[in-house]
Amino acid sequence: MTTLTKTTLSHLDWLEAEAIHIMREVAGQCANPVLLFSGGKDSICMLRIAEKAFRPGKFPFPLMHIDTGHNYREVVQFRDKRAAELGERLIVRSVEDSMKRGTVVLKHAGESRNKHQSVTLLEAIEEFGFDCCIGGARRDEEKARAKERIMSFRDEFGQWDPKNQRPELWNLYNARSHKGENIRAFPISNWTEMDVWQYIEREQLELPSIYFAHKRPVVLRQGAIVPVNVPLMNGELTNLPKPGEEIVELQVRFRTVGDISCTAPVESDADNVARIVLETATTTITERGATRLDDQTSEASMEQRKKEGYF
Amino acid sequence: MSAMEHVQDNGLLRFLTCGSVDDGKSTLIGRLLFDTKTILADTLSAIERTSQKRGMEAVDLSLLTDGLQAEREQGITIDVAYRYFSTGTRKYIIADAPGHEQYTRNMVTAASTANLAIILIDARKGVLTQTRRHSYLAHLVNIPHLIVAVNKMDLVDYDQSVFEKIRADYLEFAAKLGIDDIRFIPMSALNGDMVVDRGDRLDWYKGPTLLDVLETAPAAHTEKAEKFRFPVQCVCRPQDSANPELHDYRGFMGRVESGEIAVGDEVTVLPSGLSTRVKAIELYGQPLTHAVSEQSVTILLADEIDISRGDMIVKTAEAPEPKKQIEAMVCWLSETPMDRARKYLIRHTTRESKAMVAGIEYRVDINTMEWVPADRLAMNDIAKVAFKLAQPVFCDPYAENRGSGAFIVIDESNNNTVGAGMIV
Fold it and tell me: Which domains, from first to last, does chain B contain?
């Protein structure tokens, strides 16, 4: 006789259990998956979920980062350190190599390389024969993601067709694909920015330092705080100020971390995770609204990039 | 010490909204998000600009849920969208399903993960064919809790008799369906009455607001005793590890689909039928004394039994019969009609099997709920179908167990998910 214990999982326990289930489904259904790891907060949560899903075994997939060459040094160093601590294989493929091959052509030297990651990603998928890329995208990030499936189907050209997605019912995920096609799996689809920060706090996850309040030279450009004179891995400075712009030093932190050319920080005194959770609870600006310069270009720009193979 | 820890965590509720744009569904969702302070300033200013551009006086909250470029151009919602909000005590996932007749499949998709459905009725129009269709589908997918939101009360002068008539009409037809838990709430999503705040125009209504009901509605799996079902997703064998203690480690990884399990319980593994005891339950090195529905864990067994993905661990006293013939209510999801001459693939829990259609008993006319004869299934059709399977499945009736009673049908030529099945 089954006895009834009324146990409700806390919302974080539920979200974590769902994410673990999704990762294990990828492992069970796909022959050659890869987990995209950028060193950013969402993908840091994904690594903890992978540990919970597969330890004491190894991860059934390598980690991969598509490096634009314009990433914050702190984040790149953190990425390498975290992969080494976990003892898992990290693959790095760079947009600069695609530029050398001629498959990525910038309109001008200063153009953001963010959207060109799609090309390098598709090249890496082909190189390694990956049938599934596990990513940390969330449905609350942007309008075009609200209808994204947990297992999102991409055709041979890496394209996402919003009208040709598989219905997704119950927890019966369909990650099947034919050769050349690809699945993008999003285990933390149902998480919000707040859930991510609460999870980081609960799990005491380490983060790159730029997520916490620090002093940084910036200029104010069209209402956004734009970091300037940012050192790259090779010591070279990028994001130089435009003529006439006044450099000021502000106390800032990053809510989202990506290509230097298109991620902006917010003013903040939050120097630990508990304070960031509190700030997130009381903020009046969305994560992307505050910090992603690329999404402001047009209301539908994310949708457009996804159709072109962006994750 | 977390700033949020003092707030009691009442888990997570997934619910579904059914209705068309005309019923004010988008406005209702917008109102929920807005009044729970989920909408942030930049999003609000974006929809203010769009509202002005379209020549509207007030901010159109329905713009919050407008999704993709393609459908903005067409002015309709073509797919299920997911929205999130939190009250501090509970997190919510809204599955927003479009109401048009041709999108039955979207509603079934959205309903499959929901534990509660809000059915919108326009107070001026009352119970319509669409209302009956939505209610039937919610019932078919076995959503245990229904809220009938009688919206646009502002357009009928907040008249109690209008509300009462709609309630009586609805109850009359719901009795035929056999839906148990139905609540009725009069509201104006446009003005914010009885959604999150009570407002002062519906004083004759003494019941809870919509948010009150959402805050106290049971989450999935909490209401009745369920049989333990643990479909195995993967097997963990870290033999090559440097740690010699792990050489004999065999962990069976999965998510508890239903019921609960404790260390020491006697279990049977299907399809082998071999029995043993639970030696340990763990997650990430943490030992657990027991595990409950929806928890992802790793189970270790006392005896060495050959187990792989697709097997199911159950309690010995309540093992299901393996079945190679099943009957199910099927919603066809694909633009390509079902081809009875073809073989399909069925995915049930973590198990797959080739399947042949053995017969279609009847199709349901979802507007009249009548059974009609059918020899084919087209997109959005719902029918009772018999399948013959190459491999056995370990299933329960869907009415008893949504997890082990549901399956999807896959077309192997393009790997599309073409059907959703609920075992009778």
Answer: 12-216 (3.40.50.300), 229-318 (2.40.30.10), 322-423 (2.40.30.10)
